[in-house]
């Protein structure tokens, strides 16, 4: 019964700094972004409701980074306050181990990891795209920007697409061309069309010229090609930034690049995919690191905990940025690049835990 009361007490003392830290980081992000975009909002005469909707839409992406910072600062601040009032000393003197003392913080870290994974996998990839769509609507433009000089190479089926303009909302292409070749790269057929429309689960081409040497050029008003299987969604995926893809899309796209003989382009997508699993667990890593450090700085007051948190945050993100860049360039395997920061800081935290036991 005594330990159950202890857990409730620690969670209650942890809840306030956790909430304050989350509010502070969230407010800092919103204020920073608002100052950057305030001129655009005023010029577009955006309504308050539209601005609020814009920030609700874009929040999942920064929340993935805010959650581990919140947990780390909350742990350090909570333990600093407990140490300042000699409560930690009383708990340790009564025989409570560091591992048992840190259990409530680990539970919160695990919950934060689950929330972070859900946000990063389901909501964050689309948040940037949706926020940009809202910005375009505020400017009176279509929600999705038309893609100009669009190019897609289907290496598996030996054909390339080109469109002067691709409108994803209408599934329409203007001034389209696709080129068929054999396995050795020899041209087989070129098709040029004024327009292509996706309808009835196929591409309908208008004002078509078919070049198939040695036969003379053929001109057709409207036609379709059954062997053309690329859907608008698949074509659009090629133009997506890797951070805008879901984990499933990243895995499929990386596999398609490998099958198409474009393995040199895989690392960026594989690093991002593994990072979707590594980043949420940072919430647990910061607990492993924060609990022993919080006990060490507890007698120096909460401001020491805040300063320690800032140093750790800056160091962690420097290591993470360097590791990701090495992964993107192929100098580190994607798995290593994504997990290296967690491994380093987790090992340091485990060593500190061992010494504090």
Describe the structure.
Strand 2 and strand 3 (172-181) form a beta hairpin. This protein has two domains: 2-140 and 269-356, no CATH class; 158-228, Lipopolysaccharide (LPS) transport protein A like domain (lipopolysaccharide transport protein A fold, Sandwich), CATH 2.60.450. The protein has helices at residues 2-44, 48-58, 60-84, 87-93, 98-101, 103-138, 232-239, 247-259, 266-297, 302-328, 334-356; strands at residues 147-154, 159-167, 172-181, 187-199, 202-211, 218-223. Strands 1-2-3-4-5-6 form a six-stranded antiparallel sheet, covered by helices on one side. 64% of the residues lie in helices and 16% in strands. The longest helix has 43 residues, at 2-44. The protein is built from eleven helices and six strands. The radius of gyration is 27 Å and the shape is elongated.
Question: Briefly, what is this?
Answer:
This protein is of the alpha+beta class and 357 residues long. Helices cover 64% and strands 16% of the residues. The protein has a six-stranded antiparallel beta sheet with strand order 1-2-3-4-5-6, with helices on one face.
Series of H and E elements: HHHHHHEEEEEEHHHHH
Distance between the amino and carboxyl termini: 23 Å
Regions with little confidence, pLDDT below 50 for 5+ residues: none
Tell me the helix content: 55-70%
Number of strands: 6
Give the helix/strand layout.
Elements: H1 2-44, H2 48-58, H3 60-84, H4 87-93, H5 98-101, H6 103-138, E1 147-154, E2 159-167, E3 172-181, E4 187-199, E5 202-211, E6 218-223, H7 232-239, H8 247-259, H9 266-297, H10 302-328, H11 334-356
Antiparallel strand pairs: 1-2, 2-3, 3-4, 4-5, 5-6
Helix pairs in contact: 1-3, 1-6, 2-6, 3-6, 3-9, 3-10, 6-9, 8-9, 9-10, 9-11, 10-11
């Amino acid at each position: 019964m005594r330990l159950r009361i202890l857990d409730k007490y620690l969670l209650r003392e942890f809840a306030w700094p956790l909430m304050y830290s989350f509010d502070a980081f969230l407010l800092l992000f919103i204020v920073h972004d608002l100052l950057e975009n305030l001129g655009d909002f005023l010029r577009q005469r955006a309504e308050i409701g539209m601005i609020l909707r814009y920030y609700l839409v874009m929040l999942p992406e920064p929340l993935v980074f805010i959650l581990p910072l919140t947990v780390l600062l909350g742990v350090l601040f909570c333990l600093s306050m407990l140490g300042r009032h000699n409560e930690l000393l009383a708990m340790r003197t009564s025989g409570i181990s560091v591992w048992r003392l840190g259990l409530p913080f680990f539970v919160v870290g695990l919950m934060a990891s689950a929330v972070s994974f859900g946000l990063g996998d389901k909501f964050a990839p689309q948040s940037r795209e949706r926020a940009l769509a809202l910005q375009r609507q505020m400017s009176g433009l279509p929600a999705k920007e038309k893609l100009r000089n669009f190019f897609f190479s289907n290496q598996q089926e030996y054909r390339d697409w080109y469109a002067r303009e691709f409108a994803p909302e209408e599934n329409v292409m203007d001034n389209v061309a696709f080129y068929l070749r054999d396995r050795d790269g020899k041209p087989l057929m070129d098709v040029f069309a004024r327009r292509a429309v996706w309808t009835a689960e196929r591409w309908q081409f208008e004002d078509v010229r078919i070049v198939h040497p040695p036969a003379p050029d053929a001109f057709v008003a409207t036609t379709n090609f059954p062997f053309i299987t690329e859907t608008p969604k698949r074509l659009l995926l090629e133009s997506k930034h890797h951070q805008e893809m879901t984990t499933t899309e990243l895995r499929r796209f990386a596999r398609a690049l490998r099958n198409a003989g474009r393995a040199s382009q895989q690392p960026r997508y594989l690093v991002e995919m593994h990072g979707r699993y590594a980043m949420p667990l940072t919430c647990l890593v910061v607990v492993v690191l924060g609990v022993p450090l919080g006990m060490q700085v507890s007698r120096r007051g909460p401001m020491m905990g805040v300063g320690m948190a800032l140093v750790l945050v800056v160091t962690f993100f420097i290591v993470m940025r360097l590791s990701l860049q090495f992964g993107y360039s192929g100098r580190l395997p994607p798995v290593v690049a994504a997990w290296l920061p967690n491994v380093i800081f987790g090992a340091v935290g485990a060593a500190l835990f061992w010494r504090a036991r």
